[in-house]
Specification:
This protein is α+β, with helices and mostly antiparallel strands. It has helices at about 5-60, 135-140, 145-165, 170, 180-190, 210-260, 260-280, and strands at about 60, 65-70, 75, 85-90, 95-100, 105-115, 120-130, 195-205, 285, 295-300. It folds into four domains: about 60-100; about 105-130 and about 140-205, 2-Layer Sandwich (Tetrahydropterin Synthase, Chain A), CATH 3.30.479.30; about 215-260; about 265-300, no CATH class. The N and C termini lie far apart (about 170 Å). InterPro entries: Band_7, Band_7/SPFH_dom_sf, Prohibitin. This is SPFH domain, Band 7 family protein.
Length: about 300
């Protein structure tokens, strides 16, 4: 048999052997996979479940106008760094606390007792926001519910203390700007607790109906009295002006009478006669002579 035929047969045998081995490996792998399939299914499902459950604890999205404070399980609140807007990856055993950093408005109402024990009801609008740089301390020492824990109680305390020194009428009419002074004191007090209160707006003050009507009636009468006093003062000043004007006119005539001699009067009369004679719009007829030698003048159309 030629050598080439032997070589070909050898290659065919080698290829067959390799194919058989590969087929055997595939069969063994399929048998192993079939035996391990339940375990693989359980592992895959467990992995997917873990991803679903832990996704919101690992992938943290901080939206616009918010910031985050991280609480680490082993070391506590991270007060030195505030997490900005965006996506953050954290350890699932840690917790991200998100705060709104935009200016917010809270409506609140409460009762205040005046110096005479009368109850007033105040309606407030409070504009506030947390101090961004101190957000970690705010979370550690006060917590997310800082509006109810700090802002509102301190505002109530200051306003009750200050307004309790005044009467209902003083508060209702804001006598000498007492409401503004009280608000400034409240702002200063609240600002010491890692928050910034922009303004406290008193929307309205509610009084008992009878007290409110009595105060408004008194204010109306006071305004009418002021109006009457103003008219009296105006009339008095006008009378004084007319008196001074009359005195001036009187003094003027007295001075003029002393300074006008008979010769000056005659001279003025002659000058006036000349001016009339030169007028193009009048015809002048001189009839004899008048008293003191001045002509009598008759104007005719």
């Amino acid at each position: 048999m030629p050598p080439s035929v032997n070589a070909t047969e050898a290659r065919e045998e080698t290829d067959f052997s390799a194919t058989a081995k590969a087929s055997a490996r595939r069969r063994r792998f399929r048998r192993w996979l079939w035996r391990k399939l339940p375990l693989l299914i359980v592992f895959t499902l467990s992995l997917l479940l873990a991803v679903v459950v832990l996704w919101h604890r690992v992938v943290i999205v901080i939206e616009g106008g918010h910031a985050g404070v991280l609480f680490r399980l082993w070391s506590g609140t991270e007060i030195g760094y505030v997490y900005p807007e965006g996506v953050h990856l954290i350890n699932p055993f840690n917790t991200m606390h998100i705060y709104e950093t935009r200016e917010q408005v809270a409506l609140h109402d409460f009762d205040v007792l005046t110096v005479k024990g009368l109850a007033l009801h105040l309606f407030l609008a409070i504009r506030y926001q947390p101090e961004l740089e101190l957000l970690g301390l705010l979370h550690q020492r006060i917590g997310p519910d800082y509006l109810q824990r700090v802002i509102i109680p301190q505002i109530e305390s200051v306003m009750r203390k200050e307004l309790g020194n005044y009467t209902a009428e003083d508060i209702y009419t804001n006598k000498e700007g007492l409401l503004t002074k009280t608000i400034l004191l409240a702002l200063d007090e609240v600002g010491r607790n890692f928050v910034h209160v922009e303004d406290i707006i008193i929307r309205s003050i509610e009084l008992p109906a009878k007290i409110k009507d009595a105060i408004e009636d008194k204010l109306t009468q006071e305004e009418l009295l002021k109006s009457y006093e103003f008219r009296v003062q105006t009339a008095s000043r006008e009378a004084e002006r007319l008196r001074i004007e009359g005195e001036g006119i009187k003094q003027y005539h007295q001075i003029l009478a002393k300074g006008l001699t008979e010769g000056i009067l005659k001279h003025q009369g002659i000058q006036a006669t000349r001016e009339l004679a030169r007028s193009d719009n009048a015809k002048i007829i001189v009839i004899g002579s008048g008293k003191d030698g001045l002509p009598l003048i008759l104007n005719t159309p």
